[in-house]
Automatic annotation (TrEMBL), chains A, B:
It comes from Parasphingopyxis marina. The gene is mgtE. The keyword Glycoprotein does not apply. This is Magnesium transporter MgtE. The lineage of its organism: Bacteria, Pseudomonadati, Pseudomonadota, Alphaproteobacteria, Sphingomonadales. Residues 224-282 form the CBS domain. It comes from the Bacteria. Its main location: membrane. Gene3D superfamilies: CBS-domain, MgtE N-terminal domain-like, SLC41 divalent cation transporters, integral membrane domain.
Amino acid sequence: MSQDADTSPAEAPELEESNLDEAHRLRHEFVESVLERLDAADDEGVRELVEQLHPADIADLFEQVDRERRGPLAAAVRDLLDGEVLSEMNDFVREGLVDELDNVQVADLASNLDTDDAVAIIEDMEAEDQREVLRALDPDDRAAIEEALAYPEETAGRVMQRELVSVYENMMVGDVIDFLRDSQDMTMEFWEIFVVDARHHPVGTCALSWILRTPRNFAIADVMKREQMLIPVDMDQEEVALRFQKYGLISAAVVDSDGRLVGMITVDDIVDIIAEEAGEDILRLSGAGEGDINEPVKDAYRSRVRWLVANLGTALVASFIISLFGAAIEEMVALAVLMPIVASIGGNAGTQTMAVAVRALAINELTRSNTWRTIRHELAVAIFNGATIAVLIGIGAALVFGNPMLGGVIAAAMLINIVIAGLAGVFVPVTLERMGQDPAVASSVFVTMITDSIGFLAFLGLAVASGLVG
Amino acid sequence: MSQDADTSPAEAPELEESNLDEAHRLRHEFVESVLERLDAADDEGVRELVEQLHPADIADLFEQVDRERRGPLAAAVRDLLDGEVLSEMNDFVREGLVDELDNVQVADLASNLDTDDAVAIIEDMEAEDQREVLRALDPDDRAAIEEALAYPEETAGRVMQRELVSVYENMMVGDVIDFLRDSQDMTMEFWEIFVVDARHHPVGTCALSWILRTPRNFAIADVMKREQMLIPVDMDQEEVALRFQKYGLISAAVVDSDGRLVGMITVDDIVDIIAEEAGEDILRLSGAGEGDINEPVKDAYRSRVRWLVANLGTALVASFIISLFGAAIEEMVALAVLMPIVASIGGNAGTQTMAVAVRALAINELTRSNTWRTIRHELAVAIFNGATIAVLIGIGAALVFGNPMLGGVIAAAMLINIVIAGLAGVFVPVTLERMGQDPAVASSVFVTMITDSIGFLAFLGLAVASGLVG
């Protein structure tokens, strides 16, 4: 690559950007023209368009087109379909594509990747295909991947890469630089090097910028940072992500149970996990399972229908409560007209608080030390909210139905239900968390059951107790 | 700092970790003992405990204790309260604390930080305090911070730091290393250096690991990567975060409208934004506004009551529909008992699909190119879900009420409502996005209105149309 002073600085990116819209998504028109050429069996033309793209955008392209066209598209751009493209691809789309490749091709792709990316591709394959891919790998890659697969899914052992730079603590900065220059086979990028003792235990971490700024004759032990965040190999990836976020890490050493350095996790892998985990809560809280638009219909059905059936159960509880007040409703049909309002707004108020609590639990902001403060906080908000809505609906109902007593009953029921909703919105997720459950998964069902039941019970019960009916 | 071969490698972290639980949260007992000493006015004792903590954990400590105790705690550990602690702190907690410090102290803290962290502390202050802090800063820091504050909030200009390393394209690797060794005032960490031309336009990026591996007599222009992701200074921070995530960036150059290099954004700042943005959707979708347990009650009330009032509006629509069928309900009170089931499960099904769509839109997976595929996908899931729930509730209602016709009516209404819910769950957020609105903010209100209304209308309408009542 030679330098050309006249080259416009952003030339290459601009060329690429013309296929992307302002949000850096592939333009619809670009996708369409790829598909046109694909349908015309113009493989050369397809390749011409696709080769302009960044690997992450090639991955996006596969996500954008229909399932039936992914096979032909892969055939047309086979040589562009490297491991980087596969590792950037949505899990479901990649699984489908890997199924279509033969195992030797998969092995070929995997061998050009860091262990963590290779594992991501191989871990979802059928056991038999997986064995065949592993057999086709060279022994070193194979050993590294088999070792990674031995750790449970979603742990540091799966996410880490084995490729890293470690040096001994007695080396000088100059030795380290020479060592790096001599190791021509190191192709990966790295941001920190790990300093180890004779037993291969990490004793410090050294950012490359410190090494570059330090004269050659300084000891590496005097440049390195001794406090370091060591990640146990069996730590859950969500925990790892929280550590990276909390301590602003760029990379971290992974150690086995004997404290020996076995791998490295870098922030670029963690960014995806952070985004995934933060995004998962919204899906879990809504009972949408994996919640991916690329998830096969039968998987989406299985994970979602479960929550709808659970919701059917809680709705039956609410129905049962209504059925206790059949006579009251027959006497005053306005009760049937108004009762869903009390339940629905209570449900919304509960969902608001629950979302706040689930989020605070997920990022470790809500702990034993401030649970009571949080409950007091949510209670105060609930009282203000409840009072506001109670006044509005109370006056409205009194006017519309010409019945001040009815207005008073619905106002009181509304206030009660919103306050209970606020408390349930904190208590339910906190209790689930203390019991070792994921608060995002089951909170909704319980909170909805509480707000529906209390909504109907308070409103219809007060209607009877106040002498409005019966 | 001298090297001691006998030092146990993990000694420092272990000492610190004893105050943290398995999820790296501060132990409740530790927080309690800090508070005990604080209440006993044993400031020295408080300091002794707190000084063992990492800055991120000191920030957590302030979040854990009650508001009234944060002032005294700050007084006791004043010298430990550096800019790093403040920049790690929850926004609301920091704002409260900064209010209690005098402006010269704030200026003192800010001057030790990178621009982006200093801006984060200063941007939320009252205009007058802000001016006073700026006056107390030295001219260089002041100019940098004022320039940052001139960019709109949540743009690249606010998030970037001005401290960065740029070199000219005609330099040799050896020149760059010498330049770095000579610049003793550069205290920050950096991971890549930016190569610029004579007009200060970026022409390439060079990872430090490449520089370290390359002999001194190579031209930097031959080592650098020419394709780079340039961030315009006015780009929204959420867009910036998506770029970092999509292209796996560690740092990126920020350019002004003339294409000149004006700053750098690093992934550690982006990690927080990614987590924040991904987490915000769950709060927005639930109508919980900022949704922070540290948000002042009156702010939380203001942002949440708005959505409850909007929900009151949609609930009134549903009530109006019920009121049209008053005679039918009087004739058969079982309708009033069963109708909330149809609305509630429809609402849940709609929320599932909506969560999936909002998430897919947020990460740019749902685009014009695959909207129809997504609608077909969600429709298929909805038909399976609807059929399952319809059969369950249909048989159940027929048996419980001894009325097969009632079972048929509720089954049909359930299927209709779940299918409509599935379609609305995609259409509503996609339409809002096309209109330039944030789909997470308003989708819920519309989807709930649709599922409630259709639920009551389909069930009660079919009951009348089928001749079950009337």
